[in-house]
Amino acid sequence: MGIKVEELGYKIITSPTFVDNINENLTFNKFLNRHSRWAKWS
After folding, report:
1. Residue 42 near residue 1, CB atoms below 8 Å
2. 7 confidence band (pLDDT: 50, 70, 90)
3. Quick one: which H or E segment has residue 23?
């Protein structure tokens, strides 16, 4: 996705702060539902 944005002439800047994404308390179905919901907007 970043490459496509850069090809349009925009500058890509990333954050120096790392964000942990911990899903260990979710069942597989809840994990899948959460991430497929985010993927629909990508």
Report:
1. yes
2. very high
3. none
Apex CA 15: angle with CA 9 and CA 16, to 5°? 135
DSSP symbol at 3: H
pTM above 0.70?
Answer: no
Q: DSSP state, 9?
A: T
CA distances from 42 to 1, 16, 25, 35 (A): 8, 22, 24, 11
Q: Across all residues in the chain, what is the average pLDDT?
A: 81
Strands (E), the chain: none
